Amino acid sequence: MKSKLILAAFICTFALSCGGNLPAERPQLKQLSSTYFSSGLESGTLSGPYSTTQFSTTDSDISINSNPLYVHSGHYSAQIHFYICGDSTNPACRAAHQDDDHSLNIWEDSSNPLDLYADGLSHFLFQGYVYIKHPEAGATVDGIQRKLVYMWADTSSPGNLWSCMLTTDATNGVMPVRFVVQNYPLGGQTSSYYTTAALRYNTWYSVEIEVQDSTVTAPPWDGLVRVWVNGELVLEKTQMDLNRGQTYPIKVWHIGQQVDRGNYDPVNEYRFWDDITLSAPTSSQ
Q1: What is the CATH number of the domain that holds 244?
Q2: % the chain with pLDDT above 90
Q3: pTM value?
Q4: 95: helix, coil or strand?
């Protein structure tokens, strides 16, 4: 049976393979007491009515994987394929600096029939397992930005209101993890915070992100961000200016989005997600 609120983690040195290490568990965040969404992909499908366990997507580049090499637990995981050709003379390869967007999406706004938390989450804990497969032969390994989870306060664009993301940048096959806050429409600035974690290809990692909106409209701010990788706290930022105290909670979680390349670098790679949970306090606003 899959863990829901508590995700087992492999204890390993960051930027190294987890090898044969034994799993360990990080204590559950007691204050985030209500599970909003939890899926181990064990339905074996991605298309269907939105529910607390079922994603709904029609993206042809996202599919159910049953190859046990790329399953964290159970029988299935979600497979996301990213592809951009690198021929500058071919219009199909698009621009030199180009992103490719594909993601599993969790929505919490008035369009969601569940609508458990009014209109978005102002305090939440995202948990999931991610496996970044080494890029295919001929594809770019380094110099690619890979967003892991992209979280928006506006469901139509990250450039409206505010947004945040957990992302990586690859150098020599190592992907340092950083957390980015974009709140410029609210008068703030885009800020990037490096964690102490770095990922490698072909390894499962547990990723946990806790975000709590700021509730005041002037300093000192009271927003917070915490990030765990493999159960270890790798970033903790308090007194964060996240949303300027405005009533703009996060409404959508784009899981897997995106890759971003420069200079016509060819992209052809796969990413796998499994055991995804989103929880919140019983009252999140």
Answers
A1: 2.60.120.200
A2: 55
A3: 0.86
A4: coil
